[in-house]
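fold description:
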Amino acid sequence: MPVTDQMPTAARLVAAIGLSIVGWFGSELFRPLMPEDTNFGWFNVVNVVLGAICGWRVTGRRLGYGYAEGFSAGLTGVAALVFWALFLQSLNEMLKRALDNRYDGVIKGLTAMFDLMVDYGMTMINGPLIGALVTGGIVVGLVSEWVSHRWS
C-alpha cells in the first residue's frame, strides 16, 4: 500500500461521517428489540465512534475506483461496523458479568462473549434494522464515491 493511501481525503471524511450517522440510527433501531430493563449506557456513542472508524479505514480506503466499488465499499463498511459493534458490546457485557463472578475462568468468559455476539446478532434480524443498515451503507458508499470524484 503506497503511503498516499493513508492521506486524509474529503471522501474518507464523508464516509466516516456517513457511517457514524448509520451507526447512530442503527443503534436507535436496535434499542426497542432488547428487553425494557436493558441499561444501554454509552451504546450509541460507541457505535458512532465505530462508524467513524469503519467509514474512514474500511470504506474510505476503497473509494475512487468507480461507483460499483463505492457501492460495495459502503456495504463492506456497514458489515465491519456491525461486526465490531457486536464484538465490543458483547465484550462489554461479558466484562460486566465477569465482575459479578459469573464465570469460572477466562475460557468460559470468552465463550460466553461469543455466545452473546450470536444472541445479539440474532436479535438484529429485524427487517427495518437490516433495511436501514443496508440502505445507509449503499448511500454512504455512493455519496463518498461521488465526493472522491468531485474533490480529487
